[in-house]
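Why does residue order matter? Because the sequence determines the fold. Keep that principle in mind as you read this record.
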Amino acid sequence: MFFDAFGTDSFLLLTALLLFSGVLVAKFSSRWGIPALILFIMVGMAFGSEGLGIVYFSDAGTAQVIGVFALVIILFEGGLHTKWGTVRAVAVPSLSLATLGVLITSLIVGLAAYLLFELSWLESFLFGAIVGSTDAAAVFAALKERNIKAKMGATLEAESGTNDPMAVFLTLSLIELITAEQPSFWMLIPTFFLQMGLGLIIGLALGKLASLSINRIKLDSSALYPIFSVAFALATYSITAFSGGSGFLGVYVAALVIGNSELTYRYSIFQFNEGFAWMAQILMFVILGLYVFPSELFTAAIMVNGILLSIVLILIARPIAVFLSMITMNYSTKEKLFISWAGLRGAVPIVLATFPIVEGLQNSQALFNLVFFVVLTSALVQGSTISLVAKKMNLVGPKKDIPHHSIELISMGKAKAEMIQYQTNAESAVVGKKLHEVSFPNRANISAIIRNNEVITPYGETEIKAGDFLYILVEDKYKEQLKKTLEQRVQKSEQLMKEKDASS
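Structure:
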């Protein structure tokens, strides 16, 4: 085992060094224009036996377990931050890309692999299935702070969050067909619908249960709520998988439900999961970097064949899959081309490539190295040019308004009170009014205003402006009343504007 090679003190020091390295390369990733996953993998290679020689790691089973765990955390965090109102508008094209798109990509890449290598048809399509899906970790990280048009960003994020189950299904099914004495292709169809159906149903049910539990169970410390949410994420994956469903789909659906619900300590939960997802991402890519051996990866055969397959994947298979799976949908040619280019490969194909190794399939190690090289090529070429391609195609949206401020609160679990964040906009009825002119519900007080990343201490004569972040302290029992009041005011403002436009 990986952990047996170190004493406790050495292992903790090594973990600290890996995390330090991961955090530092993440800081410089955007500045250098290189996707973070490339740098994390390089850190793993540097610490590996063919780098500094600090760690010798060759346990595919451990790499697989760590990879699956990290993917659950990353998918959960991505789902939490996905707004249902945005995803709903692109649900059909995203699901088409996540199912039909993955299947078409897998078939075309599998055909290319069959023509290039001495592999059977099943082994070739296994390679296609492994690299057939885009990667949630890579896509979420690539789009998080880039000002891509909302429609494009939502489509890509929803696709990457929901296409992992299809890739996992195809990969495991093909491995089963290769190893079975009497393979049955017809059994794959009902199995597919069973896995997707159970993933959707269990994800919805446990997501709703998690939301109710977080809101109704009063914990002594606010720090326990984020841990509670992670426990639901892991439980959702396990319960769904044990039931024969798609665990990844279940986690993403549950996160969508939780993230779009009113939650106690919402921001603590979100901030914790964002940090935890970063740690999971660092750990996963570093471990995968440790597992690969550069002397086996960067051989002439792997590099030449990997480049050829990358060209097929990026320039042929992915565009054909996008255009066919979105043939009747309201997307322009430029938008489809951008979606084709932004289909990044990342951790999912590498983790899936460990499954044939664990099963002991023939040529599995060579298959892993080939997948690894294709992922590196995709991440480096596509990931570093997303912003440039979006700009050239005029698909750049307004700059994302990401608040970098935060307000830390002492746990108020026993006091049954919560701090609500509300951002005003030009249509908010409270904009232009002074605080003493606004009638908030009883027991609701504005504690702070953030304007242009500066804290403003509110008092009666303070005027509310568009873009202000209002932090309102309210007792739990008045929270719904405050929410309705804010929504009514916005609706009232919009109605007055419509009436004014109609009269003019």
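The chain has two domains: 60-393, 417-502.
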